[in-house]
Amino acid sequence: LQRCRALSTGTTEQLAYGVRRDQEQLTSVAQHDKVELALRSLLEAPLQRDVVRATLDQVFPSGPDPRTSTRLLSTLAKKRALDLTLHALYWHEMNKYDLNCYHYSTVIDACTKASMWNKALQLFMVMATGELEPSAITFSVAISACEKGGEWKHAVYLFSVMAQGDV
């Protein structure tokens, strides 16, 4: 409708806006389809690091955008496919694709739900000692992992670090 009005009134700004919005929607649909394709391929394939890497390389030849990465990791985590979730995270790291605290929080939470508090804490430490600043959510899921693993000393330590950092 905006494009029709733009054509009838002759304003190119509205027309350009409509085209940009359509392109963004097409890109979003394409990324959604790519995530679905990757998930279907990953869940059907035998779990091997090389298979995961090859599948993700094929589906995302130029790498996923951060929103698509979040969707991929969170969907794998919701399906309780922890090994696939970890392999997908490592694939992002290996290819130096953009990762943020939400990606790590998703995978740390998946480790917590799989009763792997030590892996959750290890991922938190990798993130915290790297370039990323842990968010309150990241601290929360890491503390929850320690709590569920009965590791109260680690949980209290993380809480104190979080409080000192004004997170």
User: Low-confidence runs (pLDDT<50, min 5 residues)?
Assistant: 1-29
What string gives the helices and strands in order? HHHHHHHHH
Q: Give the overall average pLDDT.
A: 78
Oligomeric state of the chains in view: single chain
Distance between the termini: 45 Å
Our count of helices gives 9
β-strand amount: under 5%
* Largest sheet data: none
Structure summary, number of beta strands? 0
Query: Over all CA atoms, what is the radius of gyration?
Result: 20 Å
Shape: globular
Estimate percent helicity. Answer: over 70%
Structural class of the helix and strand makeup?
mainly alpha
Structural descriptors:
167 residues; single chain; globular; mainly alpha
Question: Could you characterize what this model shows?
Answer:
The protein has 167 residues and is mostly helical. It is 78% helix and 0% strand. The longest helix has 33 residues. The chain is globular and about 45 Å long. The N terminus is likely disordered.
Secondary structure blueprint with pairings:
Elements (H helix, E strand, L loop, with lengths): L1 H8 L2 H33 L4 H11 L6 H13 L3 H13 L6 H13 L3 H13 L6 H13 L3 H13 L3
Helix pairs in contact: 1-2, 2-3, 2-4, 3-5, 4-5, 4-6, 5-6, 6-7, 6-8, 7-8, 8-9
Task: Quickly describe the structure.
By secondary structure, the protein is mostly helical. The chain contains nine helices and no strands.
